[in-house]
Amino acid sequence: MDFSERAGMAGKRVASYSEKGGVGKSALAAGLAAVARRRAFAGRIGTVYSADLDPRGTFTSELGLDTEALPCSLNDLLAADPKGEKGLAADVMLEAAEAWSGVRVLAAERALANRETDQATALEFRLRSGLDGVVTDDDLAVIDLPPRAGGKLVVSGLIAATHVVIPATLDEDGRVGAREALDTIRQVQETYNPGLQVVGIVPSIVPGGKSTLGDVIGKFLADTYGPLYRDDLAIPRYSIRQQTRFARVPITSQTGKEATALMTAYDSILTAAGVAE
Question: Which domain of life is it from (predicted)?
């Protein structure tokens, strides 16, 4: 296999990844899916797909699906033996809940964790092959990765992705999660997916007002990573985000300044990833 080839990788496939939990990784995926869905309804992009590679199923749950009662899941695709067949993701796609109508989901369940010890040959390429022929040039897939160092699920997502965004809270978890995520991303770029683009390290769940630690961490990230640190794409911390997560509705269903600020941030990140405005 020539790993430099990216044949069939149509459409944008944007992954959300950090190697620390609690930094807003799944929240970012849901926010991107929400504003992408709004763009799709406006005719600016095609179909919005989501793929949840985190066995905890946080992204799946926010899209209104019960992770304990799924008729099929991403685990079925990765556990199969497709022998390189393309487009098989269509067989295990689910429709998101009514509030998220129009979004198609490769859902996560706890059993997905079993794939980490699966010794099947080329398992890490099954998501990419599965999406090929399903995600077309005008479509967008949002991929949520688990917060762990490498592993088969993370590598599967990074091989399938065209772009990756690294959310980082302005604290030690955010700093370490970003550093370690970049290490894994660079290994994948050097081997299986050289065309993978890092959109940036994005400040996440940023509180209002002055934060001495936040200022120090932000400066460290800017000094260390230069233009990869995108404070222009910062995602603010607002309670409306937790409210929509609990209600399992997209942020685009809300009004007011806080919701608008969050939507603007997510829209800006999609634009930075080259998704049509």
Answer: Bacteria
Q: Residue 59 and residue 44: Cα distance in Å, rounded?
A: 24
Token pair in block for residue 73: 């899941």
Report the alpha-carbon distance of residue 277 to residue 269 in Å, rounded.
Answer: 11
For 162-197, the pLDDT digits (tens) are 999 999 999 999 999 999 999 999 999 999 999 999
pTM of the model: 0.95
User: Is the CB of residue 81 less than 8 Å from the CB of residue 120?
Assistant: yes
Angstrom distance (rounded) from CA 87 to CA 131 = 5
Domain ranges for the chain: 12-272
Q: How far is CA 202 from CA 51, 54, 86, 196, 274, in A?
A: 21, 20, 33, 17, 16
Whether 132 contacts 8, CB under 8 Å? yes
Determine the Cα–Cα distance for residues 194 and 58; give it in Å rounded to an integer.
29
Least confident of 1-10, 52-61, 161-170, 203-212: 1-10
CA distances in angstroms from 71 to 111, 197, 225, listed in the order given? 13, 34, 43
CATH superfamily of 12-272: P-loop containing nucleotide triphosphate hydrolases (3.40.50.300)
Q: Please list the residues that pair with 202 across neighbouring strands.
A: 167
What's the mean per-residue pLDDT of the chain?
A: 94
Tokens of 126: 């099954």
- Is the distance from CB of 90 to CB of 36 less than 8 angstroms? no
Helices 212-225 and 172-190, packing angle to 10 deg: 20
